[in-house]
Amino acid sequence: MDFRDPPKTAAWQHIKARTGFEVVYFQPSADGWRVNGCTTAVEDGRTWSVEYELELDAAWATRGAHLAGRSADGHRTASIVTDGAGHWQIDGRVSPELDGCRDIDLESSAMTNALPVRRLRLADGDRAAAPAAYVRAADLTVERADQSYALVRDTSGAQRYAYAAPGFGVECRLTYDGSGLLRDYPGLAIRVV
């Protein structure tokens, strides 16, 4: 599946599971994309904010992420880099538990669900594993998230993906636009711009 370039900016409203907002800006670079975003929310009575800068290659595979987060527990930063072959370092420390992950998935972000979809470019009916380096919103800790995506067209012609993250007990259908950005994540986020 081919995707058009993303818009210069996009925004999502967090719904149901948390209340908040995410704004993101896309900028092409010499050999990929730079994505800058900020997301804030209230979840289970706790507040947090996360600013991020992602470096992506031309296929939207993650190269690195620079994160700054704040919660009632204080301010934290994280620098996450990958070699493009599925090996990761967090703040300069090798993280073998993330071996094989190709994408970063920020708990705070609806945008990062675009990374595996754009990178995999699945055909109708195809399913693929997409393990990710999953970054928690409140404290920026990183863990492995095993997940999968399958392209499922419906009668309206919308791009829908059957998404599963068994470790989190999540199974749902995600809806995307023609640029591969998430439009609707049931119970979590909806695109507003």
Automatic annotation (TrEMBL):
InterPro entries: Glycolipid-bd_prot_put. This is Glycolipid-binding domain-containing protein. It comes from Streptomyces nanshensis. Pfam families: Glycolipid_bind. It comes from the Bacteria.
